[in-house]
Design brief:
Blueprint: E1 12-18, H1 23-33, E2 42-49, H2 59-62, E3 67-71, H3 77-87, E4 92-95, E5 100-101, H4 106-116, E6 120-127, H5 141-150, E7 165-167, E8 175-178, H6 198-207, E9 211-221, H7 231-253, H8 255-282, H9 288-308, H10 310-323, H11 327-330
Parallel strand pairs: 1-2, 1-4, 2-3, 6-9
Antiparallel strand pairs: 4-8, 5-9, 6-8, 7-9
Amino acid sequence: MAEESSHSELDLSILIVNWNSGDFLKQCIENLEKQREDGVSFEVIVVDNASVDDSLEGLESRFPWVVLIRNDYNYGFAKATNQAYRISRGRYVMTLNPDTYLPPGSLKQIVQFLDDTPEAGLVQPYPTYTHYVGLAKPGLPIRIIYYKLFKLLPSETSQTVSEPLPVQWLWGTAIVARRSALKKDIFYEEWSFLFCEEYDMCKLMHMKGYKLYVLPIRMDHFSGGSRKRSPEINYLTLKLFHAAFYIMNCREVGALRARLNALTRVLDGFLLWISQHIMNAIKPKYDRIYSIIEWKAMWLANIALLFRGSSYFNEINREAENILNNRKLIKK
């Protein structure tokens, strides 16, 4: 573990952005704390984006070794991550959502792999929800609808990873970067309030000649734990996700193909939305409410993107920042 030792005696910096994650944050840090005796030196830096819940209550007394930055404004994921990055000291840097669980020994495995594989610029434990092959592919409406409605078809992401897998893209949480390959003051570009920050990171690594790997470490991600699960906020953030994905698509495959992909998602989302409504009318189910919200956001956002493109992204990006900083709405 001699590489980059001149920068710091720490192997790893773990950056956690918190926003109303409740008990998930403490559970995440407790899990990391158990790995402090595994022979890997690491720090944890938590940036709280003006939470209004009790997720920070007792945190400093329970974990005095954790660095906590309290913001009085929700700056979004990229900006908060960069706050932590600028004071971090590790040879490798990980971004980690608070609603995650990394199995025992995983930090040691990650650091060891990066030390043994100098061509690796980014690595990530195996998250069950991520598509690794390709980017910006148009959807397949019949297959998607069949799977989403009846869940009889295996997902592309259900395959297990038994050995380090070289990939083109990494998405989601627990991405670990080699500090020497990063920009000095920016971990993530700050063009999006939420979502798709990983795209620029992956492009940077490709440009510098590094490889990306998914590691055979199964990580659990408890969906929805990192934001208040209200229908209104879910609907808003889902629209922002599709808008940010569209911008990423434009950069990768061009505006024409991005609009074709958006058209496919309009069809996918509309058909799934109608189907979920019909199924809920036949057999009401509480969890189906969130599926209805999800597909409504998908087809309406992509309709707006078809006609307005980046201007819709700019609008929904500002709207998300404004609403997620309205403490009265968040406390509802």
